[in-house]
């Protein structure tokens, strides 16, 4: 199936400077948000603490629930709505306890005092110690780092070093914008989100490799039309495949985001942002970076002759 003819000639390369500016703006917005928020917002997996999910069978709100728990020694308490239903809440407390059941029962007892009758249902309770959370956070981000290093080595062996640098910078661009989006929308980063980042890296890399492989096939035309034209031609020749693959994947991820419920909402959000940014970076970041590299190399060669 081919939505776009292979001989189409859209000037993607000619827009590379605009694309670089757009990418820098998006990264700057995410970076400023991270600075203002004091870094990423970590979930219980990474920050440590206790998480209790409750279902309320009476009308209430997060502020009222937090007020009902004020008499307990829980440390910092954050209460927020969960999922699409307005009567489910996540209660995050800073303190941890060796008796998780006792802590959740204490929260349930305090809520039942404030909301008499059969109005409280504890749906789940999780506890992660601060040291365990720190260890999980370090290992999660090391997994992303090792993936980047492995990709750099593989593409250097499979193609050339300049291709590897372009691909890795594009992947850093994709993950950076996704983390910035999480900060802007106040979403937490936990272990499932690290898995989403790794999935984004894999998806974006696959898209980039398809374009790179076509560039390598067309390298014989460099002497006739020049390297920028070869890159632009290769992006156009793979455009139909890129749109079909990204479009169908986005439909599935969008369905998960809208219909999947609160449990996988953040995971689907990460994939949704990551796939869109990854598709954009394969066309406007990874490939034009090869041209910037080639221009710098040619400029240095001329300076050396001079």
CATH fold title of the largest domain? Multidrug efflux transporter AcrB transmembrane fold
CATH architecture of the largest domain: Up-down Bundle
- Look at the helices and sheets and give the structural class: alpha+beta
In CATH, what is the homologous superfamily of the largest domain? Multidrug efflux transporter AcrB transmembrane domain
Strand content: 5-15%
Count, helices: 11
Number of beta-strand segments = 4
List segments where confidence is low: pLDDT < 50 over at least 5 consecutive residues.
Answer: none
The SSE order reads HHEHEEHEHHHHHHH
Overall pLDDT score: 82
Using the alpha-carbon principal axes, give the shape.
elongated
**Total domain count:** 2
CATH class of the largest domain: Mainly Alpha
Radius of gyration: 24 Å
- How far apart lie the N and C ends? 52 Å
